[in-house]
Amino acid sequence: MRVLVLFSHPVESSFGAGLHAQVLASLRKAGHEVDNCDLYAEDFDPRLTREERLGYHDLDTNQGSVQGYVDRLQKADALVIVTPVWNYGHPAILKGFFDRVFLPGVSFKMKDGKVAPCLHNIRKLTVVTTYGGTRQRAFLVGDPPRKIAKRVLRAIIWPFAPIKYLALYDLNRRTDSERAGFLAKVADEMEKF
Amino acid sequence: MRALVVYSHPCSESYNAAVLTKVTETLSGSGHEVRVRDLYRDGFNPVMSAEERRKYHDRGINEEPVREYLDDLLWCEMLVFVYPTWWFGLPAMLKGWFDRVWIPYVTFDIPGDDGGMGPRMQHVKKIAVVTTCGASWIVSKFVGEPGRKTILRGMRALVSRRCKTLYLAHYKMDTSTPESREAYLGKIQSRLANF
Q1: B2-193 domain in CATH 3.40.50.10710?
Q2: Within an 8 Å CB–CB cutoff, is residue B172 touching chain A?
Q3: ipTM of the prediction
Q4: pTM value?
Q5: Distance between CA B35 and CA B79 in Å, rounded?
Q6: Which of A146, B64, B113, B160 is the least crowded, having the fewest Cβ atoms under 10 Å away?
Q7: Dihedral through CA A141, CA A147, CA A149, CA A153, nearest 10?
């Protein structure tokens, strides 16, 4: 499969970067064609601009400023998102990817004021993520980033696409062996992706 | 009360700009001292840099890149957010304001061996969210309102235990009418004046 890997952590030596490297290596080992989209390395600007907002619903021109990203998203057969959770949401740089690239005509179409999802080329989705908070606290908050994956992205991609959400909670208090265990689980999941 | 209004929309002629005007007028009219942070107008950068992330846990040093925004946060007793809901969440611009400004040792204590996360923003007694949604009420509820929960549950945990909250939304913006938009402005006025 052609897999688009969306990654959003700024620090090369972070555990998140370790997860990212593992995801790339394991997917390649399994024979997938990987498009590595490292949002920080590519200096992605997550701010939807005034011009983009004004032209948002113009299907002929709205992709212009992010054409490269739209092409990569539309060429992909599967999506793997590797990200930390910050403040019970995605880092701004990843949120902005949805704001700016998941456009009308790309991920959905407007029909009589209703949204018709159309990112059906994505036939598989996995999220690899870490939380500072505990699983219990995330549950009490309502786990917004999990809902983005399991409900929002779920509704946009191919309706029968399998979704996996691999999360390590309470990262600040995890031991080396717990982190290694999570890394091994991620490797395993990616090798059989 | 000292009220900080954090606003995030790129277009000055947008309906959200009218919402902002209504919010600030209503708050001032109720005798609150109002400060507005217009993140787009400020050219705020919502991306936490590698340098900032490396120093995120360094007490004091982590305050330097966002000093003026922290001053707002420490000044206010009420927080009001005005933004369009995009993809059921906060615009990246506003999300980045949380990521970069709500830093440890000032707004909360990082969970450590000696215990869990500790709130440090007890001076904030009220939080209001005033937003617009493309989706309907029922779809928003089904999805679980991630944006609402990020603020009113996630960030809510860092402020006063007795903090009052208010959530106002105009749903189905893409099929809104002049009447529905006017009605929403009226609702903002009545609800916020008594908040």
Answers
A1: no
A2: yes
A3: 0.95
A4: 0.96
A5: 10
A6: B113
A7: -150
